[in-house]
C-alpha cells in the first residue's frame, strides 16, 4: 500500500509534539511539574481561578483594610506599598511617599522596593522546586554542592529551617578584620572566609534554631550549582518570568547599584550601601506587592509542589525551647494551641522593612513594603483578625 507524503509529515509532526512536550513536563502522581528548555522546573500561574469574591465581601473587607491603613500610615511623610488580597483578588491597595526624594519620584504600584528577608520565601521556593523535580534532596549535604564548604553535617534542610548552627556572615566578616570592608563581599567570598579564617559553628548542627542569613546565602550558591545559572538568572527563569512578575529582580550590585530605589532612615536621611550589599539569597530581591501576590497565588496551584513536600514546608522544626513561634522551610509561623497557625515572614535591611502574611486557610495575602525605616510595617499582622480567628486586635496600639 502506498502511503502519501502528507501522512509522513503528519506522523513526524505528531512525534515531534510528543517528544518536545515530554521534555518540558514531568508527570507525577500528584500533577505535572513544568520543565523549561534548560531542564529547570518553573512555577506556573494558577490555571483555574479561585472562587470570585462577592461585591459585599469586598466592600466590607476594603472598608476595614482602609481604616487600618489610614490609622497606621497617617503621617504625610510615610513611604509605603500596601496590598490586601483574598483568592488572588485585590481587596485594597495603597501607595504613598517617595521612591527617591532627590528626584521626587513617587512610589507607585510598579515601583520595586527591596523586600529584605521576604526574599528568603522566594529563595526557599526555588530550592523546593528543585527538590520536587528530583534535582536536589532535602537531606543532601551542603558540602556536596558547595566547593570547599567546611561543615560536613549541614544539609539543605538545616539551611532552609535555620538549624545549621552557622554564624551570621555579617558578624564574622566584620570581626578581627576578617574581610576588607572596602571590597564588596560575594556569596563565594563567605565560603572563603569560613575556610581561611576557620570560622567555627555557633552550635552543633540540627540541635538549635538560630535565624541566620548565612543559611540563605548558601542556598543561593546551591541554586547556582544545580541550575548552572547565577542566582539572579535562575530566579528569573524559574519564578519571576513564568509568573509575569515584570517588576521583580535580584539586585546585582555592580550592575544595578545606580538604579535601585534608595532607602532612608526615619528622619529621611538616605542610608546608602555597604560591603554586604552584594550578597543575595537572604535578601536583595526588589519587588512590588502586586508581583508578590502573583507569586503567592501560584502557590495554591495543585501542581506547585507534591503534597508530602508541601506539608514539610508548613510544619515547625524547632521545639527545643518553649513558645508558640517556629520556622518551617522558608516561612515563619506561630502555632497556637487552638485555631489556625499564622504564617508570615518579615524583613529588614538598611532602611527597608517588609511584611509578607500568608493566611493559608483563608487564602489571604497581606503585603507591606517600605523604603524608609519604620516598625509600622510589622503591624500588618493585625489585619489577620479581619479574615479569620487570629489573636490580633485591629485597635491594638503596640508595635
Set down the secondary structure blueprint.
Blueprint: H1 5-24, E1 25-27, E2 32-34, H2 55-72, E3 80-86, E4 89-96, E5 98-100, E6 105-106, E7 113-114, H3 119-132, H4 156-160, H5 169-172, H6 187-196, H7 213-227, H8 231-240, E8 249-250, H9 253-256, E9 285-287, H10 289-298, H11 307-313, E10 325-327, E11 332-334, E12 342-349, E13 352-359, E14 364-370
Antiparallel strand pairs: 1-2, 3-4, 3-14, 5-6, 7-9, 8-9, 10-11, 11-12, 12-13, 13-14
Helix pairs in contact: 3-7, 6-7
Write down the oligomeric state.
single chain
Indicate the mean pLDDT. 92
Number of domains as seen in the coordinates: 1
The helix/strand order is HEEHEEEEEHHHHHHEHEHHEEEEE
Structural class: alpha+beta
CATH class: Alpha Beta
Shape: globular
Give a structural overview.
This is Beta-lactamase family protein. Residues 79-375 form the Beta-lactamase-related domain. InterPro entries: AmpC-like, Beta-lactam-related, Beta-lactam/transpept-like. By secondary structure, this protein is α+β, with helices and mostly antiparallel strands. The chain has a single domain, classed as Beta-lactamase, CATH 3.40.710.10. 29% of the residues lie in helices and 16% in strands. The strands form 4 sheets. The protein has a 7-stranded antiparallel beta sheet with strand order 4-3-14-13-12-11-10, with helices on both faces. Strands 7-9-8 form a 3-stranded antiparallel beta sheet. A two-stranded antiparallel sheet has the order 1-2.
Amino acid at each position: 500500500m502506498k502511503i502519501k507524503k502528507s501522512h509522513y509529515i503528519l506522523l513526524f509532526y505528531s512525534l515531534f509534539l510528543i517528544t518536545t512536550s515530554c521534555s518540558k513536563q514531568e508527570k507525577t502522581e500528584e500533577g505535572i511539574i513544568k520543565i523549561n528548555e534548560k531542564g529547570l522546573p518553573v512555577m506556573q500561574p494558577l490555571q483555574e481561578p479561585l472562587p470570585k469574591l462577592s461585591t459585599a465581601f469586598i466592600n466590607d473587607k476594603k472598608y476595614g483594610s482602609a481604616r487600618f491603613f489610614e490609622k497606621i500610615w497617617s503621617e504625610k511623610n510615610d513611604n509605603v506599598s500596601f496590598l490586601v488580597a483574598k483568592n488572588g483578588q485585590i481587596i485594597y491597595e495603597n501607595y504613598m511617599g517617595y521612591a527617591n526624594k532627590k528626584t521626587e519620584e513617587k512610589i507607585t504600584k510598579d515601583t520595586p522596593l527591596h523586600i529584605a528577608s521576604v526574599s528568603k520565601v522566594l529563595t526557599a521556593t526555588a530550592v523546593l522546586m528543585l527538590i520536587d523535580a528530583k534535582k536536589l534532596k532535602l537531606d543532601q549535604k551542603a558540602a556536596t554542592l558547595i566547593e570547599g564548604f567546611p561543615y560536613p553535617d549541614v544539609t539543605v534542610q538545616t539551611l532552609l529551617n535555620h538549624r545549621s548552627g552557622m554564624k551570621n556572615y555579617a558578624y564574622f566578616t566584620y570581626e578581627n578584620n576578617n574581610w576588607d570592608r572596602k571590597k564588596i563581599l560575594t556569596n563565594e567570598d563567605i565560603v572563603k572566609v569560613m575556610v581561611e579564617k576557620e570560622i567555627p559553628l555557633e552550635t552543633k548542627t540540627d540541635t538549635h534554631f538560630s535565624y541566620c542569613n548565612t543559611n540563605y546565602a548558601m542556598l543561593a550558591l546551591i541554586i547556582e550549582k544545580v541550575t548552572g545559572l547565577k542566582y539572579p538568572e535562575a530566579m528569573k527563569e524559574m519564578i519571576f518570568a513564568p509568573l509575569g512578575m515584570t517588576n521583580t529582580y535580584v539586585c546585582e550590585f555592580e550592575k544595578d547599584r545606580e538604579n535601585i530605589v534608595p532607602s532612608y532612615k526615619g528622619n529621611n536621611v538616605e542610608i546608602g550601601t555597604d560591603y554586604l550589599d552584594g550578597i543575595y539569597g537572604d535578601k536583595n530581591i526588589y519587588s512590588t506587592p502586586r508581583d508578590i501576590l502573583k507569586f503567592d497565588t501560584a502557590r495554591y496551584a495543585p501542581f506547585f509542589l507534591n503534597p508530602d513536600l508541601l506539608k514539610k514546608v508548613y510544619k515547625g522544626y524547632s521545639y527545643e525551647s518553649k513558645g508558640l513561634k517556629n520556622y518551617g522551610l522558608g516561612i515563619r509561623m506561630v502555632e497556637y494551641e487552638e485555631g489556625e497557625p499564622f504564617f508570615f515572614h518579615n524583613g529588614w535591611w538598611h532602611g527597608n522593612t517588609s511584611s509578607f502574611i500568608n493566611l493559608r486557610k483563608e487564602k489571604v495575602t497581606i503585603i507591606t513594603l517600605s523604603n524608609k525605616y519604620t516598625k509600622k510595617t510589622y503591624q500588618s499582622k493585625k489585619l489577620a483578625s479581619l479574615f479569620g480567628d487570629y489573636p490580633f486586635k485591629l485597635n491594638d496600639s503596640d508595635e
